[in-house]
Design goal:
Protein name: adenosine deaminase
CATH class: Alpha Beta
Number of helices: 16
Family: Belongs to the metallo-dependent hydrolases superfamily. Adenosine and AMP deaminases family.
CATH topology: TIM Barrel
Helix content: 40-55%
Radius of gyration: 19 Å
Structural class: alpha/beta
Strand order of the largest sheet: 1-2-3-4-5-6-9-10
Cofactor: Zn(2+)
Number of domains: 1
Distance between the termini: 27 Å
Number of strands: 10
CATH architecture: Alpha-Beta Barrel
GO molecular function: hydrolase activity
Keywords: Hydrolase, Metal-binding, Zinc
CATH superfamily: Metal-dependent hydrolases
Shape: globular
């Protein structure tokens, strides 16, 4: 799979979307493997894969992921995590991950992953984090040597159905000066609210560690409420079901009149970023309440209402996508132009888990890049 091989250009001015500077906030390490790498690592470890060639394996992932269910979608990760159990494997995957981001025009990427899922072959939690950081740094060095530039940060994820939240939170804090920029919880959302990990979130707050929480994807407003209240989330992973707290009062030929419920009002007014992932949201059924095509996605309504929307890939392998492609799909669906795409990137820069000066620097790089487009 090479999602960068297609040339995506904006209608009208013809700007190349791939060449624009971009920021990726929601991108899973175990959802971004190169199919050929997966095949090679599986062969080294004596594991079977459902297809013998890279194109066939990429097609298998996409087919398996188009289930309309987050639970079924997550089953594809059994295969990817199986080959991510050694230091060398983790480092290689992380290094290639950075190469692929840079090739897609990403200048800053936050890479999330759950170390607790990568201990089957004897690694400790700390060794796993160190291996990924080694790969990320090697990848960034490679990009610099090729005349480019990219910065990355790890988001350490705890699995919400497990009981290791505090342990993983402590892991994140231990590595905060060695590549880790924030904390996340992920996995099956329904039935596993952020409140299950309240002790971990209390600890993270005491350490001033920023938090994003998967919420509003496979569950609704109560999940989002728990992410905000129990998790003190500064961003919402996906968050699209915040649209359930919007009441469309009336529409005419030119305008839609909407009132916001208390949760939506809080998220918008506090500029809590929504880490939307359009293709993934379709695959997992996150937008079923509004339809089953991209044009039905509440993204545009949230954008028009002033929510801090960002565009992400979630899992590039499962969705057969790239950040460039996601932006192109949204542009086709809603008629976005260069200014809109710049707004999405500036939203992401403002929401990045970086110091203010670094976020301002990212914003300047984005503005300069779009001015040159």
């Amino acid at each position: 799979m090479n999602t960068n091989s297609t040339e995506y250009r904006l209608e009208g001015d013809g700007a190349s979307i791939q060449s624009l500077p971009k920021i990726s906030l929601h991108d899973h390490l175990d959802g971004g493997l190169r199919p050929q790498t997966l095949i090679e690592l599986a062969d080294e470890q004596g594991l079977e894969v459902p297809a013998a060639d890279a194109d066939g394996l990429a097609a298998w992932f996409t087919e398996q992921s188009n289930s309309g269910s987050l639970v079924e979608y997550l089953k594809t990760f059994d295969l990817t995590t199986a080959v991510m159990q050694t230091r060398a494997g983790l480092a290689r995957i992380a290094r290639e991950f950075v190469h692929d981001l840079a090739a897609d025009g990403v200048i800053y990427g936050e890479i999330r992953w759950a170390p607790e899922q990568h201990l089957a072959r004897g690694l400790t939690l700390d060794e796993a984090v160190e291996a990924v950081q080694e790969g990320l740094e090697q990848g960034a060095d490679d990009v610099r040597h090729q005349g480019g530039g990219i910065r990355t940060g790890q988001l350490i994820t705890a699995m919400r159905h497990a009981d290791r939240g505090l342990e993983i939170a402590e892991l994140a804090v231990r590595h905060r000066d060695r590549g880790v920029v924030g904390f996340d919880i992920a996995g099956a959302e329904a039935g596993f609210p952020a409140s299950r990990h309240r002790t971990a979130f209390d600890y993270l707050a005491s350490q001033f560690m920023p938090v994003t929480v998967h919420a509003g994807e496979a569950d609704g407003l109560e999940s989002i409420r728990s992410a905000l209240f129990d998790g003190r989330a500064l961003r919402l992973g996906h968050g699209v079901r915040i649209a359930e707290d919007l009441l469309i009062e009336r529409q005419d030929d030119e305008n839609t009149y909407v009132s916001l419920g208390p949760v939506a009002q809080w998220v918008r007014d506090r500029e809590i970023a929504l880490e939307t992932s359009p293709s993934s949201n379709l695959q997992t059924g996150a937008i079923t309440a509004w339809g089953d095509e991209l044009v039905d996605h509440p993204f545009d309504l949230l954008y028009q209402l002033g929510f801090r929307v960002t565009v992400n890939t979630d899992n590039r392998l499962q969705s057969g996508t790239s950040l460039t492609r996601e932006l192109a799909l949204l542009s086709d669906a809603f008629g976005y132009d260069l200014d809109d795409l710049e707004t999405f990137q500036l939203n992401a820069a403002a929401a990045a888990f970086l110091p203010l000066d670094d976020r301002d620097e990212l914003a300047e790089l984005i503005q300069d890049g779009f001015d040159e487009a």
